[in-house]
Structure formats: C-alpha cells, structure tokens
C-alpha cells in the first residue's frame, strides 16, 4: 500500500464528494495529501480522517477562482512538504439556467470556478514541477457534459469542454518535461447535490447502462490509479467514469 509513498498531491475541492474520497484513497496508497477547499471546516475534517488512519495530510483554504490564491496554495504546499508530485484540479460548481436567462454573471461564475481554476492549477502546478525537476501528474475533473449538451447548462458545458481540451493541450506541451495531464469525466454522482427527490435521482440513474448512480469512491479509484505508475502510458485523455452514459441513449 505504498505505491504513492513520498508523493505529495494537492486535491482541490477535497472537503467533500469526489475530492474527499480521492484524498482518502491517495492517502491509503502512501501519498501526503493537501486538502484544498473553500470550506475550511470540511477540509480539516478530511485531514482528521486521514490522520486517524495514520496518514499524512494538511488543509488549505482556497478560492480556486482566484489565480493568486492557487499560486499561493502551490507555494505553501512545497514549503510544507518540500515538493509537489501531483494536483487534482477537481473543485467545481453548477448553476442551472435556461440560455436566455444565462446572464454574464451566471456564466462567469461557473466559468471562473470550473474552467479558470483548472488553468490556474495546471499553470502554477506545472511551473513548480518544472522548477523542482519533478515529473509529475495533473488530473482534471471534466464531465460527461464536456462532450454532451444539457439543457440549462450552457456555462457548465462550456467549462467542462474546455477542461477536456486543456487536458489534451497541456499534455502535449508538458510532455517534454515528463509531466502527464489527464482528465476524468464523471457521470451522475450520488452526492447530496442531487437532492432527496427519489424520482429525479432514479431518472438520472436510468441514464447509466446499469441504471445506478455512480458513487464518489468509484470516480476516486480511477483518479487514484491515474496518479500511479500503472497509468504512466495514459496521457492527454479524459477517461469517462459514466457507466456507459456516453455510449448509448436511454429510452
């Protein structure tokens, strides 16, 4: 269980959902994990979970939509742990509105968090890795809606489509430095954000081949693998974790 021993990995949005599960799994593989989240209490709670299991972790409050704060997060991590081997650019939000009500404020709110934060994490993270001569890994959270349109999600569709291409383009330019860039595209994940309406949740689940919502830990296991040496030949790709959503059309 020491596959990622001595590796230092940042997880944005690490206080809940996919980020939390990924941080826990990375820790079980031996990584030291920085839980970066705007919700400081949630981040500290995940650190406590990891430390209770004899893992190494630290929390950091960050607004990922602000480049200077992401840059400071990178610097702080290296000051604290001495290096940086990976970053999971996972933090994101959603804001559903019909396109004709998608005012600039609503559009930019999602773009700033879901798209620009990924750029900041990639840019400042990669620069630090190159400075330290680290052949690291960057994993970005895209979405099934990075390639499929959804009603009321013009902003989210645009942001996640950008993440898919940023992962490809970043991988191409960073390959000479030994840095891999990959993405994951989750389907409908069973988290509180879906609400408690069972009819709605069942309708979303039905869009997966096996008609079940995907658990955060299922996405986390893919992300954790992508940080491992076993995934060293995967580069520039965004891996669907969607139980077939993108491969068929439900009735």
TrEMBL record:
Gene Ontology annotations of biological process type: bile acid metabolic process
UniProt keyword Oxidoreductase, yes or no: yes
What is the top-level taxon of the source organism? Bacteria
Q: Does the keyword Oxidoreductase apply?
A: yes
The cross-references to InterPro entries, in alphabetical order and at most eight, read: KR_dom (IPR057326), NAD(P)-bd_dom_sf (IPR036291), Sc_DH/Rdtase_CS (IPR020904), SDR (IPR050259), SDR_fam (IPR002347)
Q: Which SMART domains match?
A: PKS_KR
Q: Where is the Ketoreductase domain?
A: 7-187
Protein keywords: Oxidoreductase
Supply one GO molecular-function term.
oxidoreductase activity
Annotated family:
Belongs to the short-chain dehydrogenases/reductases (SDR) family.
This protein is called what?
A: SDR family oxidoreductase
Species assigned in the record:
Peribacillus simplex
